């Protein structure tokens, strides 16, 4: 089975005004292609720091992080940005859509850095809108969309560059329970189609959609 992620004894220490805070302590974890994993933990448990390292938004203080066999634990910001755009799709609790762009244009934002032609990416974005049930809203701006529709656009944006890995940080946190269920069903469908998904949540109902649940507390994996 293809290995997507390998964390070896990862620790993260922040220092502010001479005071050190251990956010992660000696984390080791392997994730394989096609897995759907939930990382559960209370606020302050270290789950967002772990997500930031997995997503190449931050680097560990000690330890090694291999993404698709490549050691990315000590890369500079430019190389990390390249890795993120090429291999990782992000979905956040806040949708982070650009308010003056349409749904179609928001999905296409990461495609600016793609090697494919823009016209080809535009066709792919329209196809994603059809899959997400939003084709009739493609010219709507975020303010003209419901919360659930905005999150669907955010999922489309995460998928446009065909990432190896989807990272979702509390993706249903801003949604009502019915809409949250619809969004989680999209993630389940994507996983069945072969996408590797890591989802951060504090909600057991959301975590239950995953095939594997990992619990983190005080910066350490406990289960």
Outline the structure in words.
The protein has 223 residues and is an alpha/beta fold. The chain has a single domain (35-59, 75-221), classed as P-loop containing nucleotide triphosphate hydrolases (Rossmann fold, 3-Layer(aba) Sandwich). Helices cover 32% and strands 29% of the residues. The chain has 7 helices and 10 strands. The chain has helices spanning 47-54, 77-87, 103-108, 118-131, 147-159, 177-192, 204-207, and strands at 3-16, 19-32, 36-40, 62-67, 70-71, 88-92, 165-169, 196-201, 212-217, 220-221. It has a 6-stranded mixed β-sheet, sandwiched between helices. The protein has a 4-stranded antiparallel β-sheet with strand order 2-1-4-5, with helices on one face. A hairpin with a 2-residue loop joins strand 9 and strand 10. Helix 5 (147-159) runs parallel beside helix 6 (177-192). It is globular. It starts with a strand and ends with a strand. The mean pLDDT is 92.
Percent strand equals 25-35%
> How many structural domains can be distinguished in the coordinates?
1
Secondary-structure element pattern, one letter each: EEEHEEHEHHHEHEHEE
Rg, Cα atoms, Å? 17 Å
Strand order of the largest sheet: 6-7-8-3-9-10
- CA-to-CA gap between the ends? 23 Å
Shape: globular
Structural class: alpha/beta
CATH hierarchy class name:
Alpha Beta
CATH superfamily: P-loop containing nucleotide triphosphate hydrolases
Low-confidence stretches: none
CATH 2nd-level architecture: 3-Layer(aba) Sandwich
By CATH, the topology is Rossmann fold
